[in-house]
Amino acid sequence: MDQIKMGAFLKELRKEKHLTQEDLAEELHVSNRTISRWETGTSLPDINMLVMLSDFYAISIPELISGERKEKMRNQESNETAHVMAAYSHDEIKAERRKMGGFLILIFGIFIILSALIIFPSESSWSSIYAILGSFIVLFGLCILVNKRWRVQTVVGCMLLLFILFTLSDYVAVTQFNQVPRFRYETSYDSRKPNQWKYKTLFFTAIQTNPGTRNEKVEIQK
User: Fold this and answer.
1) What sections of the protein cross the membrane (predicted)?
2) Residue 216's domain spans which residues?
């Protein structure tokens, strides 16, 4: 409770009734000094005096204690509520835009990965380069979309999933479509076997024989 504010409010109420401190002192049967001490915030009216002041000024006790009329308090609360709602609305719009941006980045990353796997031949190193680039874009999009609490788990899970998908795509490419693996870390050539190339991945080694001919064959080394 602000005693100075309450005292100033009591003074304002007295002046609205065009009363002097002496006039009010007579009405309440107290001394002029008591009225002066109330209005300067030096002392406070006791409970009985608060009831008398409330009746005299036709104002509620909570309003007397708070030092302002209820209408003003209500307006202040309304303004505070409006500010809070405006801030909340701004944050909500910002969050929605962030989610939309993250979703678009995620879609773009997936598009890059699919394009790399479809457009570039498996022999081209650009296929794996663009696929990995697309993976980083996907992970960045997920970082924007996912709540901070689950961000690390989600990103790690997505990395693991992409790794498995790329490994499976290489395996299927070799065993079903007679193609060399895209995600290889080493390509070697043995001069003693001029018609043979060796492609090493993390989990298997593929051998390509007679490349560029009708008899071209790609198989997993046993």
Assistant:
1) 103-122, 128-147, 154-174
2) 186-220
